[in-house]
Amino acid sequence: MKQSIKVTNLHKSYGKVKVLKGVNFKVEKGTILALLGPNGAGKTTTVRILSTLLSYDKGKVQVNGFDVKQDADKVRSVIGLTGQAAAVDELLTGRENLVMMGRLYRLTSASAKQRAEELLKDFDLVDAADRPAKTYSGGMRRRLDLAVSLIAAPPLIFLDEPTTGLDPRSRKAMWKIIENLVKEGTTILLTTQYLEEADQLADNIIVIDGGKVIAEGTAKQLKSKIGKDRLELGFASNKVFQQAKKAIKNQGVDTNDKELLLSIPVKNSSRDVRDILDKLEKEKITVDNIAIHKPTLDDVFLSVTGKEDK
Length: 310
Ligand SMILES: Nc1ncnc2c1ncn2[C@@H]1O[C@H](COP(=O)(O)OP(=O)(O)OP(=O)(O)O)[C@@H](O)[C@H]1O
Ligand SMILES: [Mg+2]
Hints:
Low-confidence stretches: none
Strand content: 25-35%
Helix content: 25-40%
Number of domains: 2
Mean pLDDT: 90
CATH superfamily of the largest domain: P-loop containing nucleotide triphosphate hydrolases
Bound molecules: adenosine-5'-triphosphate, magnesium ion
Order of helices and strands: EEEHEEHEHHHEHEHEEHEHEEHEH
Strand order of the largest sheet: 6-7-8-3-9-10
Largest sheet: 6 strands, mixed
């Protein structure tokens, strides 16, 4: 079985509010899928359904070949979950949290302790291991939360916004941990508000909006849909800007009259850029600022959802 997750025609309403209206996607074993979507799109809802915590109205959801409705126990035995709200016990120390969760997963006392030591090391929590979790910083708590979800070494992990609220260094550390898990064969479904995170980590990306999957593919495929690189030129005065506007007749030029910016799509970057700059120079038009803008996942997100993901 290649697929770790298979979701077919998934529908979910809360009362009259329809949140998921026929969502379909698959996740292959050993890969990372990033689930994107604006606030309220249904990402957490999807993750909760997949991890058996929430019922759904219609459709079919399989996790490692098990149906989440009929075989909820079996599904639970193959998944780890870290939620948007951390699930650690504040009064217990980091080590105690890990051992307790290991015991809940029926590890022997000795193997729960051993596994706890490994995870404390992997997650850089050894120094803080004997302090109550309530004394941990946000980043340490997230790391403990993820460690707790890994105690039983599940083959499939759900991460709902694993790096929200982390500083850039802790975020990078978390990425490293996630990358290492996948190297060892773990399958991961993560939701994120940071498109850079999806770009960095995910093998595949799906965007949910309005209850449906509105875009999917690799980061590269999604970006190429948005189109070409753009050359952005800034000018020092309105007079020069107007001259430049007249001089450049390329197709698809965007002008920003307020900022005195021209944005020109370029196909064959270096040659097109040179041609445009040559032309301006010939007409003695001075460019104040030059930048090449490559399409980012943010552009993709904006164009498919029509709103910014922040
Ligand atoms: N228990 C509930 N009862 C009623 N409505 C709910 C419930 N849980 C979620 N919703 C609604 O369902 C929609 C989807 O919520 P969900 O938490 O899945 O979104 P999300 O994509 O995870 O958003 P965010 O990016 O803010 O985490 C929202 O409109 C939310 O208000
Ligand atoms: Mg959410």
